[in-house]
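Hello Y.,

Per our agreement to keep a running log of every chain we model this quarter, I'm adding this entry. I've kept the format consistent with earlier entries: sequence first, then predicted structure.
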Amino acid sequence: MKKNNKKVVYQVFTRLFGNQNTTNAPWGTKAQNGVGKFSDFTDKALSEIKALGVTHIWYTGVPHHALICDYTEFGISNDHPAVVKGRAGSPYAVKDYYNVNPDLADNPAERLEEFKALIDRSHKAGLKVIMDIVPNHVARCYEGLTNPEGVEDFGASDDTSLEYHRDNNFYYLPGEAFELPDYEEGFAPLGGEDHPMLAEAYREFPAKWTGNGARKAKPDFDDWYETVKVNYGIRPDGSKDFDELPESYKSLSHEAHFQFWQGKSVPDSWRKFRHIAEYWLMLGVDGFRYDMAEMVPVEFWSYLNSAIKYIDPEAFLLAEVYQPDLYRATSIKVRWMRFMTKLTCMTP
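Predicted structure for the entry above:
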């Protein structure tokens, strides 16, 4: 009998699954609107999902992103409401890539252990686990609390006197302070609610480029102002500050791509994201969904995905791309990248 190799991905917005509270108050707190937990994915729930014919479950919103809730008793700093969209925050404004969203844990102090237990339950049910990696941008206030030894936060060693340096993680506007956008009516932070942190303006000096590439100290309201753009070694004029792949590599294997990068110097942001992916693979994650993959260089995908496949040849890689002319470029036509396009998902 011919083996069926079809892959079926079940996407779930983790904080909604299992939440039976239907209040839906605008700008509501967790107490008002409720929130789903990792523990809501019981053995029975996972077996029912598996029975649909699902092979992979994509837990959306798992990495610790900026949000409005006081977790200071667990050593987590509060995020300034002026640079968080909504109270629950955007899953695509990641604050700590080495831990998970404390909102999703029954005990925030044990949040990583609770997610690892969910990975184990998923595997027991016969499901592979996918989680998000957002390579193009991070939260304005990135803070890794549980970094592995030797891992430094994004931007920690940047030379902020320069707009661009290959090994800076961010782009800067030297001498300019960040300014908040002019909010549209009804969209002020927390809907206009008083909050102790709003008594003082959010401060960032020098200002960083915004996540969608806006190069303004004062981004527009429609810009992704809650995030900052990650620098992949693309100079402000668009030229590349790293080795480019020869055209012939479009049809070569992941082993060839892996060998291409051996001994080559690459930007620091590349190395950081490679370590992040390897960290989650070691914790049992089976693959990744890449947010806005078209906004980072093709060479980075060659570098990252071949490193992932070197560890786990069966790793499932899913990319988000909206521009049809970039479909082939982003997948770089290599056999090892299972590629899907036009995903319907949250705006970053």
